[in-house]
């Protein structure tokens, strides 16, 4: 039997208020953005989007991707765009197999747009550009959830021209930074050219094409890098350390490799030390739920396979440090190796 490709991690990056959380809300049918204090994202979020949801939202467009989509789903990571959160953006960017860079097409490149590109370049993370808020172009006709290539045909020539002008401005900015970019349907080679998908996150326009490209390209990159599901012990990164009523101190973790089991010992990075502890509970958010702000209760699970967002309850996590590694270990030898690795960082 051929090994399954692991679920890809898709980070959403971009300048503050350019629409990252709104895009995920549109995909999840949630309203996380509206509930954030001051409308500002202050943490890294994680959401699993099952492939059936991608298929439903993409509709017949999924056939545009030549070749079968074999992924079980997509693990999206939402990052903050506010300038204060450079380290959270860097963490999200470094975990990602593929990123979506969101640019408000009416504002164009802004400081954290450039910073996000630098993070992605440094990590050699492939990315797709979502040129957001096209519905704000004067006279734009909104049709909810419509593919961009259908929606664009309904626009007046003047609105179409306005979009073209703004797209060319973006393409010029990317060129200045050393990238060859183009509207996605004019891209000949996705490995060499950056694809720009015009979208309205608020109304879902262009989201079908964006999802097809995210699924297709992430699968292609994972296959090329032979990132398949592995049986080995898990490796992850702590997003947040949180007190939970009835659970004590927990850690929200992105597992990016291997399998995490309920009876695993984990070695976790803390302040100047490595914490060795036994897992008490593995808590998984429901699909399409946000780990920071779940609508439903978590499911207790016995095992998770990368990539996944998971809350771990275990004794002694009070001194765990956000951004540190989590390594599962199944023998004394593995525990020692993990401790060494964490302390040497
Ligand atoms: P941070 O996480 O704080 O960096 O912001 P963000 O990138 O997650 O942006 P957010 O989703 O919070 O959206 C910012 C504002 O832009 C909100 O008022 C959204 O309703 C609005 N917005 C987002 N996408 C669109 C869009 O496609 N069209 C319009 N008209 N407004 C949008
Ligand atoms: Mg946000
Ligand atoms: Na915001």
UniProtKB/TrEMBL annotation:
One MF annotation (Gene Ontology) recorded for this entry: GTPase activity
Sequence positions that bind GTP: 14-21, 78-82, 132-135
Tr-type G domain span: 5-222
Keywords: GTP-binding, Initiation factor, Nucleotide-binding, Protein biosynthesis
GO annotations of cellular component type: cytoplasm
Protein task: Function in general translation initiation by promoting the binding of the formylmethionine-tRNA to ribosomes. Seems to function along with eIF-2.
Family: Belongs to the TRAFAC class translation factor GTPase superfamily. Classic translation factor GTPase family. IF-2 subfamily.
Name the UniProt record assigns to this protein: Probable translation initiation factor IF-2
Biological source species: Thermococcus pacificus
Lineage, uppermost ranks: Archaea, Methanobacteriati, Methanobacteriota, Thermococci, Thermococcales
Gene name, Swiss-Prot/TrEMBL: infB
Section covered of the full-length record: 1 to 345 of 598
């Amino acid at each position: 039997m051929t090994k399954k490709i692991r679920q890809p991690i898709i980070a959403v990056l971009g300048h503050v208020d350019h629409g990252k959380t709104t895009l995920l809300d549109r995909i999840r049918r949630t309203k996380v953005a509206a509930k954030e204090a001051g409308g500002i994202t202050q943490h890294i979020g994680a959401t699993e989007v099952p492939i059936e949801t991608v298929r439903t939202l993409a509709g017949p467009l999924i056939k545009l991707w030549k070749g079968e989509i074999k992924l079980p789903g997509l693990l999206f990571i939402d990052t903050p765009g506010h300038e204060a959160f450079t380290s959270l953006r860097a963490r999200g960017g470094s975990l990602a197999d593929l990123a979506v860079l969101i640019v408000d097409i009416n504002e164009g490149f802004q400081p954290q747009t450039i910073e996000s590109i630098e993070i992605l370049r440094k990590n050699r993370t492939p990315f797709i550009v979502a040129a957001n808020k096209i519905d704000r172009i004067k006279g734009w006709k909104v049709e909810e959830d419509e593919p961009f290539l259908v929606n664009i045909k309904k626009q007046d020539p003047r609105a179409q021209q306005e979009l073209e002008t703004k797209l060319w401005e973006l393409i010029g900015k990317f060129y200045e930074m050393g990238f060859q970019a183009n509207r996605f349907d004019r891209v000949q080679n996705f490995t060499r050219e950056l694809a720009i998908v015009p979208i309205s996150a608020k109304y879902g326009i262009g989201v079908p094409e964006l999802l097809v490209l995210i699924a297709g390209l992430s699968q292609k990159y994972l296959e090329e890098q032979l990132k398949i599901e592995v049986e080995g012990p898990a490796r992850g990164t702590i997003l947040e350390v949180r007190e939970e009523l009835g659970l004590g101190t927990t850690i929200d973790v992105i597992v990016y490799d291997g399998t995490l089991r309920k009876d695993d010992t984990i070695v976790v990075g803390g302040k100047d030390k490595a914490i060795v502890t036994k897992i008490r509970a593995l808590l998984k958010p429901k699909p399409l739920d946000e780990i920071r702000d779940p609508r439903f209760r978590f499911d207790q699970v016995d095992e998770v396979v990368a990539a996944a967002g998971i809350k771990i309850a275990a004794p002694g996590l009070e001194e765990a440090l956000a951004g540190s590694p989590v390594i599962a270990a199944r023998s004394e030898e593995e525990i020692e190796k993990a401790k060494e690795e964490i302390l040497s960082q």
